[in-house]
């Protein structure tokens, strides 16, 4: 398959092997399809055609099933070795269509452009913004400064969090300083576009986490003692 090797399933960690137990395709094919789907601007039917050109017949629904089953394993492994981010965050939200309705992907990057965290929410309000900040802080530690745009909901969420802290987070409202996160949205939206919207909130959440994961790997946010240089190999190494 080009950039993956024939991988014996018996060498996989127990949790991964259990998930793959009923997936009756070669593991290298499964992993290649999962990575391509979250790494490039491809639809499921694009992948079905690309595999057919390689003499592998599979249904696009199989690829979707593989993504939903495996991406959470990749994300869990990545979280353990994600590089620390800076303490000056730029936070913003972007729009993603789920079942024909707009939902909100909350995201932040540090001043170097490294992804802090992400969270898909059904609503764009104070509660959603607060939930995002709580998740991001739990995973990455407290920031010194958070820059947001003129959104009153994001400001209100931060102000509420500050009432519970001895050392408050410094809040800046500056659209110009937030250009870095707005530009970073594009890398995610470019991959999402061919998917033509998501069929369920759960699937959207999982697939978006895979896209964000691959984006962070490309940005060098994965600690790797083996000094792997190629992004594809870094991705596969998470569960092997």
From TrEMBL:
Top-rank taxon, per record: Bacteria
Keyword Signal: no
Keywords: DNA recombination, DNA-binding, Transposition
Organism: Paraburkholderia dipogonis
Source taxonomy: Bacteria, Pseudomonadati, Pseudomonadota, Betaproteobacteria, Burkholderiales
Pfam name, any one: DDE_Tnp_IS240
GO molecular function ontology, one term from the record: DNA binding
Name by which UniProt lists this protein: IS6 family transposase
GO biological process, one term: DNA recombination
Cross-referenced InterPro entries: DDE_dom, Integrase_cat-core, IS_Transposase, RNaseH-like_sf, RNaseH_sf, Transpos_IS6
Residue span(s) of domain Integrase catalytic: 80-240
Function summary: Involved in the transposition of the insertion sequence.
